[in-house]
Amino acid sequence: MNESLTARLRIKPGQHVKLARHDPDFTGPFTNKKDAKDATKKNLDKLFELQYKMYAENKHSLLVVLQAMDTAGKDGLIRHVMTGMNPQGCHVTSFKKPSERELDQDYLWRIHQAVPAKGEVGIFNRSHYEDVLVVRVHDLVPKTVWSKRYEEINQFEHYLASTGMTIVKIFLHISKNEQKQRLQARLDDPLKHWKFSPADLGERKHWNEYMRAYEDALSKCSTPHAPWYVIPANEKWFRNYAVSQILVDTMSRLRMSWPKPTFDPKDIKIV
Ligand code: AMP
Ligand code: MG
User: What pLDDT is recorded for position 82?
Assistant: First the structure.
């Protein structure tokens, strides 16, 4: 059942994604928050063990790319899923508007520097996909430039995968109405004011263009070595569960093992 949820949320290579056909309210096998939270807790325990093994074995690495519209829950997801991991061997990189220095380099330069080393889990809060999303929606480079990037990104990710990196790409899918409610909540609650940015309202006006840009990125860049997953994210508890399940399934497939000692413990006497 669980593996099939992972398979169901994965975009098949070559699949033509229409986000209107992906229900952001979908909650899979769950009808209530409590059951989903219990199942998530079990997954986080498994994730802790899997990540610890990855760190000990120092052979594989895992890159988790997170993309979403504002308020869809990238930060909340990171908070929930990270609690299932040891901070040693796990790091988050948030990609903001590129600096002058970064703009003078190729767009993958800053990305490559942040990928996880062997034994590590790296989480990207936004990523190189912004270079075919915000950049496309706001015409920050000509179409002749951004339209080549899908293939460049596929080649880049293929190269990373060939070095032993496992790549999982997560799109948190919320409805436009859900975003409206979450933005309103940020205005209504003084403790959430810090999360509100008037610029988010400007981006919201481009909702349909963003959906089209996401559909292209999801359709063109879901590959066997770096699949995209579309996560129904209107319900936060399902969002957290679904991502925890995908990570458990992905890491379990690596067949990691604890490293064998290079000594025989029986031969060693501590005096
Ligand atoms: P936040 O994640 O809410 O802190 O916002 C980061 C902002 O940086 C978002 O508005 C992104 O669209 C923007 N950003 C990230 N990467 C790029 C990029 N490559 N080019 C332009 N803007 C970007
Ligand atoms: Mg923001």
Answer: 83
pLDDT tier for residue 2 given thresholds of 50, 70 and 90:
low
Tokens matching residue 32: 């209530």
Can you list the domains of the chain with their CATH numbers?
Answer: 2-255 (3.40.50.300)
Ligand 1 residue neighbourhood (C-beta within 6 Å): 95-98, 126, 130-131, 134-135
Question: How far is Cα 40 from Cα 247, in angstroms, rounded to an integer?
Answer: 11
* Distance between Cα 206 and ligand 2 center (Å): 15
pLDDT of 83 > 60? The answer is yes
Q: Which residues contact residue 172 at a Cβ distance below 8 angstroms, ignoring those fewer than 6 apart? A: 66, 67, 68, 69, 72, 73, 74, 77, 231, 233, 239
pLDDT at 143 (0 to 100) = 98
Please state, in angstroms and rounded to a whole number, the distance separating the CA atoms of residues 176 and 153.
28
Question: CA torsion angle for 220, 222, 226, 228 (degrees, to 10)?
Answer: 130
- Cα torsion 213, 214, 215, 221 to 10°: value is 100
The closest alpha carbon to 199, from 83, 69, 72, 95, belongs to 69
CB 37 within 8 A of CB 88: no
Query: Is the overall model pTM greater than 0.85, yes or no?
Result: yes
Q: Whose CA is nearest to atom 22 of ligand 1?
A: 97
